[in-house]
From TrEMBL:
Lineage: Bacteria, Bacillati, Actinomycetota, Actinomycetes, Micromonosporales
InterPro entries recorded: Pantoate_hydroxy_MeTrfase, Pyrv/PenolPyrv_kinase-like_dom, Pyrv_kinase-like_dom_sf
Residues that coordinate or bind 3-methyl-2-oxobutanoate: 56-57, 95, 125
Protein name: 3-methyl-2-oxobutanoate hydroxymethyltransferase
Cofactor(s) annotated in UniProt: Mg(2+)
Keywords: Cytoplasm, Magnesium, Metal-binding, Methyltransferase, Pantothenate biosynthesis, Transferase
Cofactor detail note: Binds 1 Mg(2+) ion per subunit.
The keyword Metal-binding is annotated on this UniProt entry: yes
Entry function: Catalyzes the reversible reaction in which hydroxymethyl group from 5,10-methylenetetrahydrofolate is transferred onto alpha-ketoisovalerate to form ketopantoate.
SUPFAM superfamilies (alphabetical): Phosphoenolpyruvate/pyruvate domain (SSF51621)
Pfam families: Pantoate_transf
Designated gene of the protein: panB_1
Length: 276
C-alpha cells in the first residue's frame, strides 16, 4: 500500500507528528487552521485539515481583547477540550498563553502538562526562539511534542513595537538562528510568522522539521490562518497575509436580519414550528 497522504484519505486514525515529518520528506504541503469550538473543529476535521491550533488568538477572536496578552490557561483549556472532543483525525495543538512559560523550564513543563492532561491536547505550542530553547527541551524531554513559533511573535507585540515583518536585512540571521535553535531543542514543527519569503524559504530548506507559514510566503511546508480570517467572519481590514475564502459575516448578517424581520412581521414561528 502506498503511503497515505495527510488529507483526502479515510479517517482511520489521528495524524501524528511523525506523519508531518514524513510529509515534509515527500514534499507534501499541508493546511492548518485555528479552531476554538466544537462545530468549526468538526467541519475542519471532516474537510481534511490535519492539524488544528487552539490559538491564544482566542483572545482576539473569541474573547474580544485587543491583544493576546490577557488570555489565560484557564480561559483556553475548555476550548482545547471542545476541539479535541469534536475531532477524529486532526492533531490538536494547544497554544501556551503569555505568562504561562516565560519563567523557565519548570513553569513551561507544568503548563504543557495541564494542556495534555486536562485539555487532552496532542501537542503544545509556544512563542520564541533561542530564548525558549530550554523550555522546549524540558517539554519534549517529558514526552510532549512542541510546535515552536518564531519571527513575529504576537505575545511580544509591545516589545517588538507593533505588527512588524521580521527578518529583513541583518535581522535575517536572528530569525534563522531562532529556527535552528528550536529544531535542535526538539520541536517537531515551527511556525514562521511575518518573515520575508526569502528567509522562510531558506529555513524550510535548512531544517528537517516542517515549517508552518503565516505571512511567510509560498515556500513553507504548511500554511496556517486564523479561521475567522480565512472564512471572512472577521470584518474590517485584516493583515495583508490573509486570504478570505468566504463571506461568513455577510451570510450571518443576512440570516440574522431575516430572522429579525420574520419575528417582527409574525411570520416566524410558522405552524410547523409549534406544538399542540
Ligand atoms: N484574527 C487574527 N488573525 C491573526 O492573524 C492573528 C490574530 N487574530 N491574533 C493574534 C495574532 C496577531 N496577528 C496580527 C495582527 C495584525 C497584523 C497586521 O495588522 N498587519 C498589517 C500591518 C503590518 C505593519 O504595520 O507593518 C499587515 O498589513 O499585514 C498582523 C498580525 C496575527 N495573529
Ligand atoms: C496564528 C497562529 C500561528 C497563532 O499562534 C494563534 O492563532 O494563536
Ligand atoms: Mg498564538
Amino acid at each position: 500500500m502506498s503511503e497515505p497522504t495527510l488529507y483526502g484519505g479515510p479517517a482511520t486514525r489521528r495524524v501524528r507528528t511523525r506523519d508531518l515529518i514524513a510529509a515534509k520528506q515527500r514534499g507534501e504541503r499541508w493546511p492548518m487552521l485555528t479552531s476554538y469550538d466544537q462545530y468549526t473543529a468538526g467541519i475542519f476535521d471532516e474537510a481534511g485539515i490535519p492539524v488544528l491550533l487552539v490559538g491564544d488568538s482566542a483572545a482576539n477572536n473569541v474573547f474580544g481583547y485587543e491583544t493576546t496578552v490577557p488570555v489565560t490557561v484557564d480561559d483556553l483549556l475548555p476550548l482545547v477540550r471542545a476541539v479535541v472532543r469534536a475531532t477524529k483525525r486532526t492533531l490538536v495543538v494547544a497554544d501556551l498563553p503569555f505568562g504561562s512559560y516565560e519563567e523557565g523550564p519548570t513553569q513551561a513543563l507544568r503548563t504543557a502538562v495541564r494542556f495534555m492532561k486536562e485539555g487532552g491536547a496532542h501537542a503544545v505550542k509556544l512563542e520564541g526562539g533561542r530564548r525558549v530553547a530550554e523550555q522546549i527541551a524540558a517539554i519534549t524531554g517529558a514526552g510532549i511534542p512542541v510546535m515552536a513559533h518564531v519571527g513575529f511573535t504576537p505575545q511580544s507585540e509591545h516589545a517588538i513595537g507593533g505588527y512588524r515583518v521580521q527578518g529583513r536585512g541583518d535581522a535575517a540571521e536572528d530569525v534563522v538562528a531562532d529556527a535552528h535553535a528550536v529544531a535542535e531543542a526538539g520541536a517537531f514543527a515551527v511556525v514562521l510568522e511575518m518573515v520575508t519569503s526569502e528567509v522562510a524559504k531558506r529555513i524550510t530548506h535548512d531544517l528537517p522539521i516542517p515549517t508552518v507559514g503565516i505571512g511567510a510566503g509560498p515556500d513553507t511546508d504548511a500554511q496556517v490562518l486564523v479561521w475567522q480570517d480565512m472564512a471572512g467572519l472577521r470584518t474590517g481590514k485584516g493583515p495583508r497575509f490573509v486570504k478570505r475564502y468566504a463571506d461568513l459575516a455577510g451570510v450571518l448578517t443576512d440570516a440574522t436580519k431575516r430572522f429579525a424581520d420574520e419575528v417582527r412581521g409574525g411570520e416566524f414561528p410558522g405552524p410547523e414550528h409549534a406544538f399542540h
